[in-house]
Amino acid sequence: MNSPLPNRFRQQILARERLIGFWMCMSNHITAELAGLANYDWLLIDGEHSPNEVPLMLQQLQALQGSTSAAIGRPSWNDPVEIKRLLDIGFYNLLIPFIETAEEARRAVAATRYPPQGIRGVAGAQRSNRYGTVPDYLTTINDNVCVLLQIESRAGVDAVDEIAAVEGVDGIFIGPSDLAAGLGHLGNPGHPEVQEVIRHLYDRVTAQGKAVGTLAPVQADARRYLDMGMHFVAVGTDLGVFKQATFALREAFAK
């Protein structure tokens, strides 16, 4: 197991580099291992909209051990207990969903930091510190956890300036599907009003010097967001790629 410190992905996010990612929701260590061979900048293991629990996410992290891709974990909610467990199994990058206020953002950051900066519980030997063999882990990890917060509601949009300004928030992720639903355009993230709000979020967050990202499994959408200037964009999902290829193969041999 390679040392987690320093966290190169967090450094890239803080530098607002362009990072191409891939979304993993199939809850399988074999597909995770395969995705890890593709040299994406980052791979997200989804615990919100996928049947992933901590042991499954651990298996996928282990499958990515030899990969150059940074692993991001998404908990099901802004829950300090769940966040603590993901940190302990070896996630150093977290995408925390449905943030609507600056106070929720502060709670999310606090859950990733040991006291006195936060409330993360201390375990002497866990996978994140190589089972207690990283001597400076406790004194350095607070500065090496990347916190990305997801804005996906009207309330989050209204509070974007305050959320992005919270110390320890490294970047803002825009959830187009939930944002579209919240704006009254369920199933239509391409609606002009939704796209206008996405642009507004991008402008407000970048004005504070923070990175902005999103998920865009349609290539045209991904290129539009990258042309806009977004910094970390997931350009596909494992489930979507598998579904598309499976259906296309069957169609190629249709009677």
From TrEMBL:
Q: Which reaction does it catalyse?
A: D-glyceraldehyde + pyruvate = 2-dehydro-3-deoxy-L-galactonate
Q: Protein transport among the record's keywords?
A: no
Q: Which UniProt keywords apply?
A: Lyase, Magnesium, Metal-binding
Could you name the domain of life of the organism this protein comes from? Bacteria
Does the entry feature the keyword Transport, yes or no?
A: no
One of its GO biological process terms is: glucarate catabolic process
InterPro entries, per database record? Aldolase/citrate-lyase_domain, GarL, HpcH-HpaI_aldolase, Pyrv/PenolPyrv_kinase-like_dom, Pyrv_kinase-like_dom_sf
| Chain ranges of the HpcH/HpaI aldolase/citrate lyase domain | 20-243
UniProt GO molecular function: 2-dehydro-3-deoxyglucarate aldolase activity; metal ion binding
| Classification via Gene3D superfamilies | Phosphoenolpyruvate-binding domains (3.20.20.60)
What the entry lists under Pfam families is as follows:
HpcH_HpaI (PF03328)
Give the GO cellular component terms, alphabetically. Answer: cytoplasm
Q: Identify the PANTHER family for this entry.
A: 2-KETO-3-DEOXY-L-RHAMNONATE ALDOLASE (PTHR30502), 5-KETO-4-DEOXY-D-GLUCARATE ALDOLASE (PTHR30502:SF4)
- What is the name of the protein in this document? 2-dehydro-3-deoxyglucarate aldolase
| Annotated source species | Bordetella genomosp. 4
